[in-house]
Amino acid sequence: MEDLAKNLMEELECETVFTIPVFGGIDISESVVVTWIIMAVLILAAILLTRNMKIDHISRRQAVAELIVTKLTGMVEGMIGPEGKTYVPYLTTVLLYIGVSNIIGLFGFKSPTKDLTVTIALAVMSIVLVEAAGIYHLGVKKWLHKFVEPVAIVTPINILEVFTRPLSLCMRLFGNVLGAFVIMELIKMVVPFGVPAVFSMYFDIFDGLLQAYVFVFLTSLYINEAIE
Amino acid sequence: MLNVSFWNLAIVIVNLLVLYIAMRIFLFKPVQKIIAERQEEADRQFEEAAESKSQAENMKAQYEQSLADAENEKKQVLKEARKSADVEYQRILKDAENAARQVKQDAVAEAENQKAQIIKKAEKEIADMVVDAAVKVVGEKSGAETDSALYSKFLDKAGDES
Description:
- The structure holds two protein chains of two kinds.
- By secondary structure, chain A is mainly α.
- Helix content of chain A is 73%, strand content 4%.
- Chain A has eight helices and two strands.
- In chain A, strand 1 (16-20) and strand 2 form a beta hairpin.
- By secondary structure, chain B is mostly helical.
- Helix content of chain B is 95%, strand content 0%.
- Classes of the chains: A mainly alpha, B mainly alpha.
- The A-B interface holds A 12-14, 23, 26-29, 31-32, 35-36, 39, 42-43, 46-47, 49-50, 53-56, 62, 65-66, 69-70, 73, 89-90, 92-94, 96-97, 112, 114-118, 120-122, 124-125, 178 and B 1-5, 7-9, 11-13, 15-16, 18-20, 22-24, 26-28, 30-32, 34-35, 37-38, 41.
């Protein structure tokens, strides 16, 4: 049992892969390296899929690229509505990144979303995007006025929401991925053969993609609320 | 897991921004561009189809117009032909009438002429007969007897003659 706890902690610990010798040494953690790998994979896939596209007689490759882009952007557009069209590419990118991050554990990498740093970064970007969208669409005056709506007494709660929203986003994602990972490890300890594969379908693939969807869905909901 | 370093946070944010820009450039832009181009192409083809359809309709209308024109022209020509034929007919009829009248007049004149000649001839023969008779009577008798004989002889001769 102590072995298990030790193993788990080791798995969960985000090791420093290397240190960049500037500013007194920047420790590059494993999650950042895996993020780079994911970025490389996504960008390479995008370049390969969208190479010499044609208007008619399209290749299967192009059909796949078009299907992915239209389905994903269509899904995000459905969440955010026609006013938030500008934010669709960013949200789709986040959807792809979180989705790939959550299932990359299956390929032997440590999921970046298992590192709190990454989920905090995602949540910070989301809240910055939400507030920036509010200021851009409404102007500073109306954006500030939103804090005293619908009645002045809820202003503290509205201000608090600026912090609780990203916190909940970040912790939900982190907690789900972490929880799924711990449960999977426990199952592997109990039944090392066959059964984990079945549970992995749910915890790694379904829950991973679902969390990506939830993260993007909530962010688009906040943006939608902010730009009304 | 729980140790959050500022630098890693900053690096992840930069990573995400880079990924976002890269995805925009390499995935969303080209695909959306190609879809927009295809839409344009489709719109253009629809437009062309509509244009050629309206052209065909125009041509059809022109054909119908020219057909109607031809029909009208045919009617016009027929009408004129009928009219000129009528005029010709009237002229021929008139000519024929004139010719017939001429022939009739000529015939009448000829007949009159012949009649006059016959009468002249008859008169001449009568005069001859009278002279003949007179010579005969004068040669046979004289006086009243002669006159009456002359007269009856003339009558006889005239009766024979006529």
